[in-house]
């Protein structure tokens, strides 16, 4: 008849076996398999999609600023003034102002997208 110490020892060995991490899978062999593993590990396809969407979202927001917001801003300037060539003393600040306004609008759009995504639990 086994002693209680033998039962405890067997149970501890079983616990150790369960807690021991499985060995890492061997690295893939062959260039094609290594490349596939690289794409999967770094989620390159998702990054590429996000980058492309970001580029076109930037173009969309730039068009919004250029075609819709800046004409409204031009009403606040003296007649006949082009915002892109606006000067303050010797400094041309029109393009800078345009870039700042575009940045603010892009930041607002991204904020709203993140806020909507967090409400709908999109991760």
Question: What secondary-structure arrangement, pairings included, does this model have?
Answer:
Layout: H1 4-19, H2 31-41, H3 44-74, E1 87-88, E2 91-92, H4 94-119
Antiparallel strand pairs: 1-2
Fold and architecture overview:
The protein has 123 residues and is mainly alpha-helical. The protein has one domain. Helices cover 68% and strands 3% of the residues. It contains four helices and two strands. Strands 1-2 form a two-stranded antiparallel sheet. The radius of gyration is 30 Å and the shape is elongated. 0% of the residues are buried.
Give a brief rundown of this model.
The chain is mainly α. The protein has 4 helices and 2 strands, in the order H-H-H-E-E-H. Helix 3 packs across helix 4 (94-119).
Spell out the key features of this protein.
mainly alpha; elongated; 123 residues; two-stranded antiparallel ribbon; 2 strands
Count the domains: 1
Helical fraction:
55-70%
Could you tell me how far the N terminus lies from the C terminus, measured between alpha carbons in angstroms?
57 Å
Give me the side-by-side strand order of the main sheet: 1-2
Low-confidence stretches: none
* Content-based structural category: mainly alpha
Global mean pLDDT: 82
The total of helices stands at 4
Following the backbone from N to C, one meets helices and strands in this order, namely HHHEEH
State the total count of DSSP E strands. Answer: 2
The major pleated sheet works out as: 2 strands, antiparallel
Radius of gyration: 30 Å
Principal-axes geometry comes out as elongated
Task: Tell me what portion of residues adopts beta-strand conformation.
Answer: under 5%
């Amino acid at each position: 008849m086994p002693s209680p110490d033998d039962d405890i020892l067997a149970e501890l060995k079983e616990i150790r076996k369960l807690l021991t991490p499985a060995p890492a899978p061997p690295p893939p062999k062959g260039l094609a398999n290594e490349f596939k593993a690289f794409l999967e590990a770094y989620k390159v396809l998702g990054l590429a999609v996000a980058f492309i969407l970001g580029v076109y979202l930037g173009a969309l927001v730039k068009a919004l600023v250029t075609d819709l917001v800046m004409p409204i801003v031009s009403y606040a300037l003296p007649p006949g003034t082009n915002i892109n060539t606006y000067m303050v003393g010797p400094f041309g600040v029109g393009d800078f102002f345009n870039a700042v306004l575009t940045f603010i609008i892009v930041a607002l759009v991204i904020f709203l997208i993140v806020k909507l995504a967090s409400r709908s639990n999109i991760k």
